[in-house]
C-alpha cells in the first residue's frame, strides 16, 4: 500500500513538473510576440513618417527650384553650397567678422573706463572713416552711372550683389530712395558691383546691368537695377527683364556674350576691398564731395543710422 502511494506521489510530482516547465515557455512566447507587434507598429509609423517627409522635401525642393529659375539652377546651387570650397569661404568670412567684433570690443574697453552705447546723435564707432582728395573722389566715380543730382554735396555709393538676400531686403525697404528724395538734391547715388564668388549668377547679372547701361543709358541702368532686386536671379529672368524694358535684344546678347564688362565689375570689387577692406554686402560709402570726408556703413542698417552719418558728414556732428 505504501509503495502504491509512493508511486502515485511520483506521478503527481512528475505531472506538476511538466505543467510548471511549460509556464516559462508560454510567458517567453507572449513577450516575444508583444515585442514583435510593437516593433512592427514602430516600423510602420517610421515608414509612413519617412514617406511624408519625402513628399514634404520634394515640395520644398520644387518651391526652392522655382525661386532660382528651375531645377538646373537649383541643382547647381546645392552643389556649390555643399562644396568644401564654399564651406571654407563661409568659415573664413565668419571668422573675420568675429575677429573684427573682438578687436572693436577690446579697443572700446581698453580706451574707456566705462563703455556706454553711443547717443542717438552719434554715429556708430565701428564705422570706418577717412578722407579723400578731389582726385581720388573723381577716380571712384570714373565710368560710374550717377542717379539723381550729379552735383550733389553727398555721394552715396552702394557696393552690392543681386543674389545677396540682405541686399534684396535693403532695396525692398527703400532706404536709399527715401533718404535721397528727402534731401532736396543734396545726395546722389552710385551703384557699384560686388559679385560674391559663391553666388553663381551674380557676375553675369552685374555684366548685364552694364550692357543695359551701354545700350540704353543712365536711366535704363537704374531701372534695370530696381527690377533685378525684385525678382529671382536667373538667365531666363535677365532675358525677360530686357524684353520688358524694350531693349534691343540682339545688341544685349552680343554685349553679354562678349564678357566685355567682366573686367570693369572685377575692378570695382577690387577697389572696394583695397580702399575699405570690407568683404560683405551690402557695403555703403557716403562721401562729402566738398571736404572729401567719408564713412563706411556696412550691412543693411536702418535709415536712422544713415541719417546720422549724413548729418555727421554735412555738419560735423
Kindly summarize this structure in a few lines.
This protein has 317 residues and is an alpha+beta fold.
Give the total of beta strands: 6
- The CATH class designation of one domain is Alpha Beta
Number of helices: 12
Helix/strand-derived class? alpha+beta
CATH topology of one domain: Glutaredoxin
Whole-number average pLDDT? 78
**Judging by the overall fold, what is the CATH architecture of one domain?**
3-Layer(aba) Sandwich
Instruction: List segments where confidence is low: pLDDT < 50 over at least 5 consecutive residues.
Output: 5-13, 96-119
Describe the SSE topology.
Layout: H1 2-67, H2 71-82, H3 84-111, E1 129-131, H4 134-141, E2 146-147, E3 154-160, H5 165-173, H6 175-181, E4 187-193, H7 202-216, H8 218-228, H9 235-244, H10 249-258, H11 262-276, E5 283-288, E6 293-298, H12 303-315
Helix pairs in contact: 1-2, 7-8, 7-10
